[in-house]
Queue: 2 jobs
Job 1
Amino acid sequence: MEVLSAAGIRYSEKETWENPIEKEADIVAVRQQVRDLAKEHRFDQFAVAALTTAASELSRNVWVHAGRGIARIRVLRNRNRVGLEIEFVDHGSGIADLNRALAGGFSTSKSLGLGLSGTKRLVDEFDIDTGLGRGTKVVIRKWKKEF
Amino acid sequence: MPTGPIPILKIGSTLLVTIQIELHDTVVDSFQEDVLEEIEKSGASGLIIDISALETVDSYVARTLANTGKMAKLMGTETVIVGMRPAVAATLVRMGYFMEGIHTALSLEEGLEVLGSQAKVPDTE
């Protein structure tokens, strides 16, 4: 089945993968799958590294802050453009002060404090929905460059 | 020599570590401890970490590598990270991470040169 979002972006259920993040090794599994998909769709090496690194940072956030969650990876089609979307969902405690977390240099745990602000700079689109007690959902998208 | 997943070789007074596997956080942590213990045991004056096989270096790996270099420095051993891929360098800088305070070189050969010049010219800063 193919789905058309309000923004005109199409994706197919056949090209959607759901990865659980329940143990540390799952961080590596998510980043390997993102890397393989980005290469398969011929993203350039800088985009592959950016997407893979962003996936690694956000998977680690889920693992460190919430203990468990999922990473949903989708191949997107928008007219002739191809993109990758990764949605990270957890039901952890959420982020109380999102502005501060996005400003960078802020960390409450073992991550660098570059997590969210740094990751945002690696992708084309970055959406976050969170709040204290609500868990966190982060969606990132990167489109393949057209030449 | 430690029997962890990342082999540590000694060549003269230099330890050479070539990272060729996808790094889990716990592997990175144990790697750091293995390297520091090996520096103590071997009395090596230089440490080269070759990351040319790594396609992804995220903030956790980058920070652990840089911290390993700083720890080695406290012990009296200079560290050079060699072979960082262009896409890895671009990604780290875009994220705002510059691996400050760490020597880098394009290749193993240049890394050895950096260590050689460090040994000859004492730091006068």
Job 2
Amino acid sequence: MWDYFWGIRCVWLRYFDVFKKSFFYYLVTTFLEPILYLLSFGLGVGSLIGHLKYQGTDISYRSFIFSGIIGQTLLFQGFFEASYGGFIRMYYQKIFQAMAITPITLSEVLWGELLWDTTRATVAAEVVALIGVISGDFPPQCLLLIIPVCFVSALLFSGLGLTVAAYSKTIEQISYPQYLLIFPMFLFCGVFYPIENLPVILQWLAWSLPLTSVISILRSLTLGFSIDPKAIVILIFWLVIWVWIARRAMTQRLVK
Amino acid sequence: MDPQVPLQISHLTKRYRTPSGGFLEAVSDVSFNVYAGECFGLLGPNGAGKSTTINCISGFYPTTSGNVSILGHDVYAHPKQARQLLGVCSQEDTLDTDFKVKDQLIRHATYFRVPVSEGRKRADDLLKRFDLNGKADQLVESLSGGMRRRLQVARALVSQPKILVLDEPTTGLDPEARRILWEILMICRGQGLAILLSTHYMEEAERLCDRVAVLCRGKILDIDAPKNLIKKYMSQEMQEEEVRPGVLWKRPSNLEDVYLKLTGSKLGVNGA
């Protein structure tokens, strides 16, 4: 048992050391994108819209979009690191194969990969939240409150990404789920507007995708609304599904 | 399972499901031991099951049936204990391109719980022995193919294994690099390291291996010392072959003749 955690820690540390070495690269690729979204939508669209009604309360569009961008950050950082990054590590660098014939097992390698992707996405989401706190949109305690949901969501999206990496024959094939699933989630799951504005059928579709639940919970925690229990159930459901499939699919791909 | 024997393989069988839905038996009932200080050769054409056998030895692939144990540790029941004693240089290049040459040796050693200070000492020593110390602070990308191969063998040795498994380690090496590797393997064997070597080069096998197994379509055709195999299978001591139109060469029978005879191919186009 202890050995198992030791193995996962070894793998996680490998990723962390790469991160430290290429800190500038990660700084740009991890934090710049959400900050650009914040500026563009928070300031640009925010000044256009001013306020909107969310769950019967009047809130500023800037606060609304900031909490949505936390969810978008979790989605993009978790998915892209695990899908493209995971594919490169598995297919080109063969890092999984090299580590999994040492006292570290493949099972530990895959947990290490998922937990690193999760760590990276969670940190990025916290940076967005911190900007929200500094701008006065969120209360400071929300930085702590959102950690569990950020972690769980990041793990979910990393699982989704690693699943995609496991099933993709070439790196180009990762574009299919990227355009067919990730971008639709980004556009329809409530990052930019309350999904109640959508036709009912699209609302149902949005709720069936995990990002809607993630954003619903994040908005509740950052803006002080009550949490929708259904969102927690959907989130846990997708978490278990994607992490399980990711580990199984990647193991099947590597081990004959 | 004898805790004294570095590598024991008994009745190893590995069946895969092929993409078309059928089954392929890549390894059938393979048994052999590799003893301390011994170099054991695994010979066979492409697709004979050499790499599959090696993937089963590391426990990376589960076996269909049979056992593999390393100094008494079953690689499936106790993978961590077994692999602690195992160094593998796989056929594919699996070097970690995110780290510099020396750093990745130290890092690899940490996977075996070797402290960084000790890993650094071992890395320095290995880089010197493999004639790579000029490259210690460079990324893998700047290394030539032969250097990468040597680094991968060095990496397999950084944990000071009791059994070293090398899957076609000299493919792509120039004669000098090959000599360096052969010399290092000889020194390691002198210190009691057991080596399992898969190779296509019969001259290399004949030179390095105390015993060889000839593998074909997943089955072992014979296991013996190269010298004995030659005696057993080649009736004439000398071989005569036409190497260029009209040019005949006479040479002693060698392991390659045995290999080609056993695996069903004939040397030379005219089958003489």
